[in-house]
Amino acid sequence: MNIQSTLKIAVVAASVFAFFFAQPAEAADGKNAYKKYCQACHQPAGKGLAGVFPPLADNPNIKDKPDYIAQTIVKGKSGAVTVNGTTYNGSMPPMAYLKDADIAAIVNYVNTELANGSSTIQADAVAGSR
Ligand code: HEC
Predict the structure, then answer these.
(1) pLDDT per position as a tens digit, 70-90
(2) Helix or strand or coil: residue 12?
(3) Which CATH number does the domain housing residue 115 bear?
(4) What's the 126 CA to ligand 1 centre distance in angstroms?
């Protein structure tokens, strides 16, 4: 094998690596931020705590509503919400101090990994909801 073909293989291998690992790296940021800022209440895997903290997993109120999730993080939430037949009437503190990019990563993690949604938002859309 000559040097050119060795180089080509190295370049192909690097692109394949980048293709498979670049996206999950972003998702992992959302997951880490979720653990840090949301999990204490909404619990690991977003299952919530019956009657106290609503689940985010399999929650049809939030599925594919990234703007609603972002707004809830920025402004907090109080008043009754009903999720899959259980009513919650608590209060979530606003977390407007989080950066747009972190909020976007959390929203995308929550929607696509917990709520079975597929839509995502970018940091500039979060900026618009402030
Ligand atoms: C201190 C506890 C607490 C933390 C931390 C918290 N939440 Fe909440 N969250 C709540 C409570 C309580 C409610 C329900 C509020 C109500 O009854 O109106 C809620 C509601 C929500 C809702 C609306 C659910 C619905 O069905 O409409 C979303 C979305 C949400 N939280 C996302 C998040 C995300 C994402 C984070 C992390 C950035 C987070 N929460 C952090 C307590 C918390």
Answers:
(1) 999 999 999 999 999 999 999
(2) helix
(3) 1.10.760.10
(4) 17
* Choice from 43, 69, 72 to test ligand 1 binding pocket (greatest atom count within 8 A of CB): 72
Quote the CA–CA distance of 92 and 84 in Å, as a whole number: 19
Secondary structure tally for the chain: helices H, strands E: 5, 4
Going from the C-alpha of 120 to that of each of 16, 17, 68, 110, 126, the distances in angstroms are 24, 23, 12, 10, 11
What sign has the CA pseudo-torsion 112, 74, 30, 90? negative
How high is the pLDDT of residue 29?
93
Report the domain count for the chain: 1
Q: Quick one: tokens of 56? A: 């985010």
Say what the pTM is: 0.84
**Residue 89 burial (CB < 10 Å; 0-12/13-18/19+)?**
exposed
